[in-house]
Amino acid sequence: MRPEYQLEERTPTVAEFSELRKSVGWEFGDPDGYEKGLAGSLYAVCALLDGEVVGTARVVGDGSICFYVQDVIVRPEHQRLGIGRALMERVMDYIAVNASDGAVVGMMVAKDREAFYERFGFWARPNDEFGPGMMQFWGEPE
């Protein structure tokens, strides 16, 4: 029998967020920075199993013309069960309600995960019209 997951529209706590990041091998950052960053989310949703957060996704941006899908994380032992899809559906519903015509919705995708996000209308760069996306990590984690 498949476990019953619940979706809750809320921001994960710093502890929940840190544990999720750790579970997928992402580096740990500054807890104070996480607290401030999470508080600045436009939208967040968590997947829970028996009260424990096993996944999350959030949206940051200006709330009208620029949105960025951030921190789509599902604990490895709960992947491939439809949780990521359910989280992304909630994220895309939020954006559909709040985005102005012509708004830009961006994201950075983990290597080899592009096909998952293409289902939600995202496309990879570079292509014939757009150059590569760019990024940097600010400072060094302690």
Task: Report on the architecture of this protein.
With 142 residues, this protein is an alpha+beta fold. The protein has one domain (6-118): Gcn5-related N-acetyltransferase (GNAT) (Aminopeptidase). The chain has 4 helices and 5 strands, in the order E-H-H-E-E-E-H-E-H. It has helices at residues 14-23, 31-39, 83-98, 114-118; strands at 6-8, 43-49, 52-61, 66-74, 104-106. Helix 1 packs across helix 2. The longest helix is centred in the middle third of the chain and has 16 residues, at 83-98. It is globular.
Q: Helices, strands, pairings?
A:
Elements lengths: L5 E3 L5 H10 L7 H9 L3 E7 L2 E10 L4 E9 L8 H16 L5 E3 L7 H5 L24
Parallel strand pairs: 4-5
Antiparallel strand pairs: 1-2, 2-3, 3-4
Helix pairs in contact: 1-2
Measured on Cα atoms, how large is the radius of gyration? 15 Å
What's the end-to-end separation, in Å?
43 Å
Contiguous helical run count: 4
Q: Please give the largest β-sheet.
A: 5 strands, mixed
Query: What is the CATH superfamily?
Result: Gcn5-related N-acetyltransferase (GNAT)
Please provide the ordered H/E string of secondary-structure elements.
EHHEEEHEH
* Chain-averaged pLDDT: 93
CATH level-1 class: Alpha Beta
Q: In one word, what is the shape?
A: globular
Structural class: alpha+beta
Keywords:
142 residues; alpha+beta; Aminopeptidase; 5-stranded mixed beta sheet; 4 helices
In short:
This protein has 142 residues and is of the alpha+beta class. It contains four helices and five strands.
